[in-house]
């Protein structure tokens, strides 16, 4: 069941063939099935946080122990720096009740400060939840 949820992650997250997705916060606790599903959907390997070119989306693994809300804000600003217009940012956190869970309000606060809007949430495999962020329009 967990594999099935992760298998559709690439499509469910809005990523498509040929897109380059930059990953932040990789550690040994990430859901490898989610990573593999995104790579399968895009046909590209995820690039790491040191990648210096334009990307089509960002995937951020964030846990309570990673730091404060202000640090997530800084990371979101960094993720936006390489993001192509219209690119999506997903912040993945451990699901409620799991070690490292981050309240959605913390993600929303960091996103707002970083100039991003939260648009939706989704399950991202057995142990992770995702929140989708987009750039605010400048009209």
From TrEMBL:
Region Disordered, residue ranges: 113-139
Biased composition annotated in UniProt, kind: Low complexity: 113-130
Highest taxon in the source lineage: Bacteria
Pfam families per the UniProt record, alphabetical: DUF3052
Protein's recorded name: DUF3052 domain-containing protein
Gene source species: Georgenia halotolerans
Lineage start: Bacteria, Bacillati, Actinomycetota, Actinomycetes, Micrococcales
